[in-house]
Amino acid sequence: MTNTVERPAATRSRGRWPAVALFLLSPLFGEYLLGNMAFSALPLLPLLALLYGAGSLLIRETARRFGRGSATMLLLGVAYALIEEGLVDQMLFNHDYFAGQAQESDTILTALGIDAWLTLVVVAMHTIWSTYIPITLMEALVPGKATRPWLGPVGTAVTVVIFVAGSVYLGWAVYDETGFVASAGQLIGTSVVVIVLVAAAFLIPRQRVRSDRAAPRLWFAGLVAFAASSLFMLTEALPGWTEVAAAGALVVAFVVVVTRWSRSRDFGFRHRLALVAGGVFTYAWLGLTMEPETGPRSTLDQVGAVLIAGFAIVLVVLAFRATRGDQTRQPDPDRPSSIR
User: Fold this and answer.
1) How would you classify the pairing of strands 335-339 and 331-332?
2) Within the chain, how many helices (H) and strands (E) appear?
């Protein structure tokens, strides 16, 4: 009788650990792997997880609960980015968010009150690195649960409460420090775009296999992702609107190439994992060179940056090992006529 009672609890516990891991992995990648937060600020990770972690969990759980996949999660990731940076901390509209930002910004869209390059880059960073990459890695580490929800109704409700609480806290903290509030038009406009993105995430048709062409080799897909994402980050060095044009062109070209690849009959989860690996390596080298928001790095911070980069690379290796063999051949929600 005792075993009968305890076994379901143990099973539920094993089912929840990927959700807890994603909750913490999202801010670790989004802030610490990037180098935006120094290693010495690691105690702030649980606080950042209130927004990053809960947001990634809600994206992943909502998509999987409705039988959707990567395309839906990416659109929800864009919506998340706009919620965080447009509605919560309002960085997109506050040109004094960083010291010297107003003087350095030379791609301002006056009608919208945003810096075009900064908006493009920040939205991409949250969509890819803060949400999609951690989600994909965690799903790869538990391939048997990759397409199933990890949380029940209670867990999902708790995650919503955490996300709202984290958003309110961060919004209040930023306002208390800066005193900035975006205009009503900016807030309403951002909210409308978020609603449209969420609707589009569930209305887009599932992709069908349309080509018999071979998918690229895994190493090549990863190399392309690494090169494209690294060049995307380096567009900051270009003058004026050239950086916007270059960053936009890279995004469009990458989306076109990956979409074409994804229509190949043998394109599967490990190809997406290879693309994710390329992005991880980009953040890894950035994290070793970027000056953190928290100030100059100490020796401990430098060592910590190497450790975090090493940890991320180990996760990539473990993810590839976990997805070997038949366990990855599951139906792909984005492509019901193909195999995962």
Assistant:
1) antiparallel
2) 13, 4
Q: Is residue 10 part of a domain?
A: no
Q: Quickly list H helices, 28-132.
A: 45-49, 52-65, 70-82, 101-104, 116-125
Nearest-angstrom CA–CA distance, 130 and 313: 16
Judge contact between 94 and 187, C-beta under 8 A.
no
Q: What is the Cα–Cα distance from 266 to 335, expressed in whole angstroms? A: 12
Instruction: Find, among 63, 51, 324, the residue nearest to 206 by Cα.
Output: 63
Concatenating the DSSP letter of every residue in 124-163 gives HHIIIIIIIHHHHHHHHHSGGGTTS-S--HHHHHHHHHHH
Report if residue 54 sits inside a domain.
yes
Identify whether 9 is part of a domain.
no
Domain that holds residue 102: 19-339
- The count of structural domains within the chain is 1
pLDDT, tens only, 195-254: 999 999 999 887 666 667 888 999 999 999 999 999 999 999 998 899 999 999 999 999
The residue among 316, 18, 26 whose CA lies nearest residue 163 is 26
Would you say the pTM of this structure is higher than 0.70? yes
Task: Give the C-alpha separation, 205 to 74, whole Å.
Answer: 14
CA–CA dist 15, 146 (Å, integer): 11
User: CA–CA separation, 222 vs 279, rounded Å?
Assistant: 8
49 lies in some domain: yes
